[in-house]
Amino acid sequence: VTDSRPTVLVVDDETAVTRAYSRMLADRYEVRVANDGDAALDLLDETVEVVLLDRMMPGRSGDEVLATLRERGFDCGVAMVTAVEPELDVVEMGFDTYLQKPPSRERLVETIEALLARRDYTDELRAYTADLEKLAVLPDREEADAATARAQLTESLSERRERLAGTDVDLGDDLGFLSVVSQIERRADGAGADGGSSA
Amino acid sequence: MYDLDGALPTGEPTAVDAGSSIVVAGPAFSGQEDVLFDVLAAGDDHGEGAVVVTTDRSARKVQQAYRDRGGDEERLYVVDARGGGAGGNSGSRRVQTVSSPADLTGIGIRLVQALRALESQGVDRVRIAVHSVSTFVQYLDETVVFQFFHTLTGRVQATDQLLVASLTDGPGDRTLDTVGSAFDVLVQIREQGDGFEARVAQETLRLPWTPITR
Lengths: 199, 214
Hints:
Radius of gyration of chain A: 19 Å
Oligomer: heterodimer
Low-confidence stretches of chain B: none
Number of strands of chain B: 11
Shape of chain A: elongated
Strand order of the largest sheet of chain A: 2-1-3-4-5
Distance between the termini of chain B: 26 Å
Largest interface: A-B, 29 and 30 residues
Low-confidence stretches of chain A: 192-199
Helix content of chain A: 40-55%
């Protein structure tokens, strides 16, 4: 587990700021640094789990980077780093949370961990519903086959239910709840775009 | 605990733990909507607040149903998420509109805003109602609807509130088997002779079918 540290991408036009973030985060995360929007999009791939994104940057703004990132189907957790307190609007804009400038190390780690926990939760939830759906269509299948499959699925479901309950997701927190809901909605849209037509 | 004061057609249970979520399922016109509003309005006597997410009835009818049961409208907030051109400004701060049941984020934001508004009125014990789960399934994949309700029940559990939702369970519908499993308490209604009967299933409690008298 130790060699799979989560990858965090930090984006800010001020090199002093990105250097400070790197210093604060390097012991826990794999940190990538971008000093403008284009560089951020170049450094983005499936392994990036969290993005800390400065809102006000010359050239491509934080909002534009976010829009492009979501368009390309990247589902990472994105924190808006901002001088003002934007509140619930951030979720409507496609961000998952915000960090007020300048964030302390404690606040940075806390935010990243919350974003990772929400991803764990939605990943587990998706796996759980996939099993649930398989179980629902089982009666249509041949009997001998179905009994074994049912037993396996039932076991898998109870394991997944425990893992789901074990995630540290912060649903009692307003932004925690809202960013999970928007992630569910985003992924639903993505599934539709892949051509998943409903029977 | 949240008092149900006989709001359930079975009479029992008379209260549920804080953080519980109840789904009331039955065929069309079997009265599951009445049960939902009864559960909601039972909180009014205890000074609790209510938020209704409606995908089915107009906000005006929701307010009417709450008023008819003696509820205080000052503590009732409505998130009107009916599809098809509803939307626009309602003119009341206690009614917020969302363009479609598929706009889960929009619904979530209005819900959180309503909860914050109640909190600023000094009300933190809140019953949240969703009428109805079945409409969501018309707009979104069942698995997505399950994920949304699992998250909503998780939220209600984390904040010690109460959730009650209605579900129309027609012949051949699988929604109750899938989405229904996101809830802790199932109130099931079915036709029996000229009327209806109901039963309650909870993890530790399973009550027999009981004729409904109204």
